[in-house]
Design a protein that fits this description.
Oligomer: single chain
Number of strands: 16
Number of domains: 1
Largest sheet: 8 strands, mixed
Number of helices: 8
CATH architecture: Alpha-Beta Complex
Strand order of the largest sheet: 3-2-1-4-9-6-15-5
Length: about 280
């Protein structure tokens, strides 16, 4: 395992997510992420204040990113271009870069650190991770606790259920971004899933496999927050389902508290000065 540079970084785009950024960063630091390459999509909240301690210590790099008007392959706000920009700027700055959203939390259900797990995939140009959708857990408005402790109900996934994935890539062997879920790799190489099975490019949904690597996607949060998210995405040219549709209830089918093992350490990290 090469430790001459950071082993794992995260790349994400955000817009007016100041109230969620610190929890997201500190959680991922707990599971082994060392660097964060963040793209600010015209935020107007106090995100700069929240991120300042991390920027000062070289943990976070922020790139201002202006939203184009087009929607590319179902993704607004120039996300594809931002991810390509990250590959170009930071190709040599981390052994792996995971491309996820601010409402997604990446971890290993085994409790192992992510760099330890990814050490088993050194021969692959990329690893795809199943995305599990979480619902509102009955919250109408934003509750006072952490995201990961407030929303503990998710969709049930039968064995044949197919879901979206997100990608952790070796930037040195990655050619370009296809969309929010997948990438094209150099010389026709192919990413793999957590079972080391090949995963094609461009990406598609796959049966859920989340025993080694997993992405909790807090797609709904409270009903109030979902309405805000829906309005934001709709204004960007990609309409989202009405919050009263049945699919919202499907995201509430099963209680899953696996991620809660990190809650005590996360509270401690959030209460301490950034180190």
């Amino acid at each position: 395992m090469d430790r001459s540079k950071p082993y794992l970084a995260l790349c994400s785009m955000y817009r007016d997510h100041a109230e969620y950024l610190q929890e997201w960063i500190e959680f991922h630091r707990l599971v082994g992420v060392e660097r964060f390459f963040l793209y600010d999509n015209e935020s107007t909240d106090d995100h700069e204040r929240v991120l300042a301690p991390y920027v000062e210590r070289g943990i976070v790099t922020v790139h201002p990113w202006q939203r184009p008007e087009s929607v590319e392959r179902g993704v607004p706000w120039g996300l594809i271009y931002a991810f390509d920009d990250c590959l170009a700027r930071h190709r040599d700055d981390s052994r792996w870069i995971a491309f996820i959203d601010i409402d997604e939390f990446l971890f290993s259900p085994t409790g192992r650190m992510l760099p330890d797990v990814l050490g088993e995939f050194e021969s692959a140009p990329g690893v795809v991770v199943s995305q599990l959708n979480y619902g509102s857990s009955g919250h109408v408005r934003k509750p006072p606790g952490l995201v990961i402790e407030s929303y503990v109900h998710r969709r049930s996934y039968p064995p044949d259920e197919r879901t979206f994935v997100k990608s952790i890539v070796d930037p040195a062997r990655t050619a370009k971004c296809f969309n929010a879920h997948g990438f094209f790799y150099e010389e026709g190489a192919t990413a793999v899933d957590e079972n080391h099975e090949p995963f094609p490019s461009p990406p598609r949904k796959k049966p859920v496999s989340a025993s080694l690597l997993r992405l909790n996607h807090y797609v709904v949060k409270s009903r109030e927050e979902y309405a805000q998210k829906r309005a934001l995405w709709t204004s960007a040219g990609r309409p989202w389902p009405d919050p009263d549709l049945d699919w919202i209830d499907r995201e509430h089918a099963e209680r899953d508290e696996l991620i809660l093992r990190w809650v005590p350490a996360l509270h401690e990290a959030l209460e301490a000065p950034v180190a």
